[in-house]
Structure formats: C-alpha cells, structure tokens
Amino acid sequence: xxxxxxxxxxxxxxxxxxxxxxxxxxxxxxxxxxxxxxxxxxxxxxxxxxxxxxxxxxxxxxxxxxxxxxxxxxxxxxxxxxxxxxxxxxxxxxxxxxxxxxxxxxxxxxxxxxxxxxxxxxxxxxxxxxxxxxxxxxxxxxxxxxxxxxxxxxxxxxxxxxxxxxxxxxxxxxxxxxxxxxxxxxxxxxxxxxxxxxxxxxxxxxxxxxxxxxxxxxxxxxxxxxxxxxxxxxxxxxxxxxxxxxxxxxxxxxxxxxxxxxxxxxxxxxxxxxxxxxxxxxxxxxxxxxxxxxxxxxxxxxxxxxxxxxxxxxxxxxxxxxxxxxxxxxxxxxxxxxxxxxxxxxxxxxxxxxxxxxxxxxxxxxxxxxxxxxxxxxxxxxxxxxxxxxxxxxxxxxxxxxxxxxxxxxxxxxxxxxxxxxxxxxxxxxxxxxxxxxxxxxxxxxxxxxxxxxxxx
Length: 457
Prior knowledge:
By secondary structure, the protein is mostly beta strands. The chain has four domains: 37-127, no CATH class; 134-210, Immunoglobulin-like (Sandwich); 222-332, no CATH class; 365-455, Immunoglobulin-like. It has one helix at 8-41; strands spanning 58-64, 67-69, 78-80, 86-88, 99-103, 108-112, 120-127, 134-137, 146-147, 150-153, 157-166, 171-173, 180-182, 186-196, 201-210, 218-240, 249-260, 263-274, 278-280, 286-289, 292-295, 302-310, 313-341, 350-353, 356-364, 370-376, 379-385, 395-402, 410-415, 419-423, 430-439, 449-450, 454-455. The strands form nine sheets. Strands 16, 19, 20, 21, 22, 23, 24 and 25 form an eight-stranded antiparallel β-sheet that branches. Strands 1, 2, 3, 4 and 7 form a five-stranded mixed β-sheet that branches.
C-alpha cells in the first residue's frame, strides 16, 4: 500500500478555499440579518412589554394607507390600525388577545403579552390626518345649571383646552371637559383650542346662552299732520273801530293759528295801512275787537281805512269785513310718515305730540331667528333666518364679526340682504358673527343674535 502525501502547496490552497467559502456564507447571513434588522428597527419596541429582543420579532409586511412599504417614514405621523394588524405563531396560527400599540410621538411599537419566539406580525398603519374642520355648539342653560359641549372634529386630536373668551360674568367653564355653568343671564362665548396629531392648532368657538334670549320689541305708530279748524258764521260782518285818529295811517294786527305740543298757538302779525288802503286778510287770520273775535276766509274778508268827518277834524277809521268765530279745534290731517321705537311710550297712542298726531299700530319682533355661517373661498358667508315683518318698513341687518372669540367686534355691513360675505382676515383662525335688525322708521334692536363659530384653516 502506497501512501500519497499532499504537497504543501495543495494543502494551502484547500485551506484558502475553505476560508473563502466560510466568509461568503457569513457575508450572506450578515447581509440578510442587516436587511431584516433595518425593516424591524423602523418600528422600535418598547422595553418591558415585549419579552424578546428585536430579532425575535419578525415583521412580515408593513402597510401604510393600504400600500405596502419597506419602512415607516420617521418624519411622518401614523396611527396603528389594530383591527387589521395581526401576529401569528411559527405554524401560521393567529395569536389571539394581543394588545398592539404604536406611539406616534416616540415611534415605539409594543405587543402585550408577547411570549413566543418567532412571532410574525403584519402591521397596518394610517397616516395621521390633519384636522381640517371643527365645530362647537352648546344648548342654552340657566343660572346654576350646566351645558355640555357638542364638539365635532374631522380627525383625531392630541389635546383640547376650553376657555371663555367673552362673557365670563355670565358663565364659568371646566377647561378640560368644556362643561359650562351658568352665572347670570346673558351670552358667553366659549373657545376650544384643539391640537391635532400633527401638532397643528385649530380653534372652534360657540356662544352659550344663559337664560332665554330677550328679543327687542318694535313698536310702530302712524304719524299725521295737524291743523287748527276754525268754525265761523255763514255771513260776513262789517266791524268798525270805535275811535279814529287824526293820523293818515293806521296800525292793525291780525293773528294766525298753529299747533305745538298739543296746544293751539296764536301768532300775531302787524301791518300798517294808509287812508284808502284795502288789505285782504290771509285765510284763517283772526282779528279781535271789543265786539268779538272774527276770522278771515281769505277772499271777502278785508281790512280797509276810510275817512269819516267828525266835528271839524278828519279821522282814520278801520273797517273789517270778516266772519264771526264760533269755535276752534285741532284737526288730525293726512298721514305723512310711520315711526317706530323700542320703547312703548315713545309716542302717544292716539293723541298729539309736538306738531303731529300719532296713532298706535302695534308691536312685533324683527330680530333674526338665527344666523348660520359657511366657508366660501376666502369669505365667510353669514346667512340670516329672518322673521316675518308685520308692520312694514324696510328691514336691514347689521353684521358684526369677531376673530378673537368675542373680545372685540368689527361691523362688516348694514344691509337689507339676509346673506352677506365677510372677507376673512389673514390672521383669523376662527370667526363668529352676530346680527341685529333695524328699520327705516327709526327702530334699532338692542338684541344681537349670535352664530356658532366657524374654524378657518
């Protein structure tokens, strides 16, 4: 039997080949492990709730919004869909009663309990959406009673803080729950400051009415002109003065009537006549003599001066052709206007005030029933739900808005339109609108009707 001894060079060659093979296998294993770790480490685990280290948990697939991804984007915020995410044993059976959790702040993933090595998980994530709209509303309440917030937000939020921005004397609030407690009758405005999962802030505002809204009654009157009615005899009377004068002129006085503060006012007018003059008195002019009081009809009633020789000297004598006055009274004339007020005693019911006669018509309420808001491009549209107009007149609405929760108000317009577009200020995060009514008769309501707030993104 012959023994062949390997040459020294061949032995060295085989050793090198063996080492190379081992290195290649090790490199493949390392590459696979690193790739697997990279996917896994994109969803770090929270110590204490998982019994094994990262390599013990095999992430089979990660989905974001239904699309398969290799890893989560560290710059984005996600929520874990626990209804679709599953974990299975090595044999493929689903592990029941697991609690899966993902903390979007720390980017940490946890499974409780986790007791089996080789567990494989398929995880479904949703991109955390930003809040684009939020609405807040309260039901009216009374003093010492409470009202809960009706908050609607279109995405998950991280935190919320409630505060009263206007009318704190009417209500108090729990900053965490938003529950309002009435203090006194009036309108308070509540603001909800909401932070969403992306860290954005959005504001929602709402009025809360403590006690009922006391609308302003509008009281309406018709206004009429007034004049003085003079009742006179049917035939004229010639009246002469008792004494004359040696002068060639004669001063005379007649009177006219008017109405002021419900009384007849007599205004004198002085004239000077010369011998031979005739002067027709204005209609309704009154002259008085020792024989009585007389009225002119404006046509046949005249004042004249004639000479009557008496002894040896000529005298100037006044002659009047007038009608005897039998009575005077104030007469309601034709309607010349309609007036209104928020006070039921502003004008008399059926009597004279000043130079006018007023007749009471009745009262109504023209305050809006409600005001609603909607976004329309770069505007907020305020829409009034108007009441009926019982006693006429042109009704208009004063629109005011606030972007600081009712701390200050800006008048946008006064218009008869029940819809008005308010341009959104550049720094506005929310807007609330209040409206009151007025008419062209002189009435302006003291009641403001408030809208719910609208959030502006």
